[in-house]
Amino acid sequence: MVTLQDVAREAGVAVSTASRALTHPERISPPTRARVQEVARRLGYRPNRIARAVVSGRTQMLAVLVPDITNPHRLGLIRGAEERARAADRTLVLGDTRGDPGLEADHLDRLGSVVDGIVLASSRLPDADLRELARRRPVVLHDRELAGLPGVVTDFDDGMRQILGHLVGLGHRRVAYLSGSRRSWSEGRRWAALAAEATRTGVGVACLGPFPPMLDGGPAAADAGLASGATALVASNDLLAIGVLRRLEERGVPVPQTVSVTGFDDIFGADFCHPPLTTVTAPTEEAGRVLVDVLLGGHAQDAERTVLPVRLRVRGSTGPAR
Amino acid sequence: MVTLQDVAREAGVAVSTASRALTHPERISPPTRARVQEVARRLGYRPNRIARAVVSGRTQMLAVLVPDITNPHRLGLIRGAEERARAADRTLVLGDTRGDPGLEADHLDRLGSVVDGIVLASSRLPDADLRELARRRPVVLHDRELAGLPGVVTDFDDGMRQILGHLVGLGHRRVAYLSGSRRSWSEGRRWAALAAEATRTGVGVACLGPFPPMLDGGPAAADAGLASGATALVASNDLLAIGVLRRLEERGVPVPQTVSVTGFDDIFGADFCHPPLTTVTAPTEEAGRVLVDVLLGGHAQDAERTVLPVRLRVRGSTGPAR
DNA sequence: CTGAAAGCGCTAACAC
DNA sequence: GTGTTAGCGCTTTCAG
User: Fold this and answer.
1) A91–B82 C-beta distance less than 8 A
2) Does B303 reside within a domain?
3) Which of A237, B26, B193, B244 has the greatest CB tally within 10 Å of its CB?
4) How far apart are CA A279 and CA A267, in angstroms?
């Protein structure tokens, strides 16, 4: 590895001069600057960002922690965050917590002292831990609310309202909610919103599950939903909903003739599964952008809370109640 | 931020002792060790990994660069790599190059001096740049071959052989290949393999495109394929194939009655699109694991080349030639 | 077993 | 403008 010392020696200047010639060229006389830069190039010098970070205390890296990197739902967020990070000349570090608070804490232990800020998507960490973390580093939350911490949340309330409104309009009066993981904050929001709306409109909604909020959870959820006698199945998310659709097809149950099915997230595949899924779409790329902006804007202290609007996308999986 | 100095002072020992008590506890007397550890915990001390890395020269971080993080095809690789990295107590840093050599170089500039090793998936960097990079850091390649560098490649030859064999068995004699990006190494491999196999079996194969290897590329590819008079369309990858299926459905062309369609990768969604896609599946999680193992095993110098076996998955999108 | 001191590669006062 | 010097927080000889 060629260091700044090597460059300085070879160029016949002090290290500090070499350093400046590379990072603050305007403060160096043209001839010296040119010589240093030429030598640096010739020697193939690359600044050691680690060393630079020790003194500046900043690495220009941001971390994004997601519960499951294989869930297509997060792709938008990641891409939006990536885009903004790149624009701000930061490097994004991505970590997968597998929805496990232990692994999440692990990752944070490792990355906490390395990155300049952290985006936590659907964090499962206890409130106290989040607060403590936020004391060390700027932190922004996605789909998790905690007083004092800034964040971006999907408008689950409105999403569920739109879903139920749509189903009621189609004549459905008995609805089953296929719930996902009990431990997630957003799961609680979804169910609460749906239950509230059901009460308001006088529709009966049963809460089934929890089921693993993945394709694999589909079979059990579909069977339970069918057995409940509901005419519409509201799945916790698209992954589960698609799994449900597959199971129903396998069992020869026509959708939406016998039951309607809805999802949440509008993931990759929701528009080409069979039948295409009626679901709620959220501007996840925008979420990613906003999260990084808040992190970089230094507003991470101000506890801004942004609620992102959602929109129902009606596709083939919902129809009139039988 | 509480530093090691703070801990040492509070515990009434030298920094070096505090350091050892935390990283080499066995070399410290039990009472001292206990005291230091207790103080560290009480003060909420967290080692600064950056500082640690300056002296050790290692950060315990590995980078994985992929051309497009939103392509579900890479999820397996990422997950496999993550798993191994975690097991080896390393942190994975993920970067998206958008298939742009410039951005890829950018990322490497930023991360090169920070990570202990690099996994490059489908790198678009010139051979010379790759070689130079490999001189600085351990590098392993995925789906790109370069003499002297270790890597893991999908067995494209066998995959294409299986696809064509399957189609020929169904009576297809006129096949169109819907090509993807010209600039990718794997694209070249796929076409070369298909062309060779076509020659061997005396089947006519036209190369159409290139089309953007994404869902969006589907419409143009489908129309061109149909116009070519081929009875089977072999798409460069699943994303494109699914886009093609959607376009065919839109145009009312029955699949596989009028044309058969095949993909490559077996991505999320390939089994629930309509009709389900006949494609080639590769053990991508295994690829991720092997790549990280090679990186960590220090075999990165030995230029090992692992070819991963593939398997044809026949689904509803292929049938007898009309 | 513990402490003092050197130094990782780089940046940033502070002089000249 | 440029060089000298002092660290950043930590690990690691090297003495004691």
Assistant:
1) no
2) no
3) B244
4) 9
- Residues A210 and A181: their CA atoms lie apart, in Å, by 6
Q: Which residue is nearest to nucleotide D11 (CA to C1')?
A: B55
Look up the pTM and report it: 0.90
Residue A310: inside a domain = no
Please, what's the b/e burial string for B201-226 (b: 16 or more CB within 10 A of its CB; e: otherwise)? eebebeebbbbbbbbebbbbbbebbb
Type of residue at B172: H
Enter the tokens of residue A224: 């339970």
Whether A95 sits inside 8 A of B95 (CB atoms) is no
> Which residues of chain B neighbour A69 with C-beta distances below 8 Å?
75, 78-79, 82
The tens digit of pLDDT for each residue in B147-197 reads 999 999 999 999 999 999 999 999 999 999 999 998 889 999 999 999 999
In tens, the pLDDT along A120-148 reads 999 999 999 999 999 999 999 999 999 99
Q: For chains A and B, count residue pairs whose Cβ atoms are closer than 8 Å.
A: 109
Contacts of A110 in chain B (CB under 8 A): 49, 60, 91
Find chain A residues with C-beta within 8 A of B111's C-beta: 91
The candidate with the shortest Cα–Cα distance to A54, out of B32, B52, B245, B45, is B52
CATH number at residue B27: 1.10.260.40
Estimate the crossing angle of helix B30-43 against helix B4-11, to 10 degrees: 120
Same domain, A161 and A270: yes
Terminal CA-CA length for chain A: 72
**Three-class SS state of A20:** helix
User: Residue B220 sits in which domain range?
Assistant: 156-283
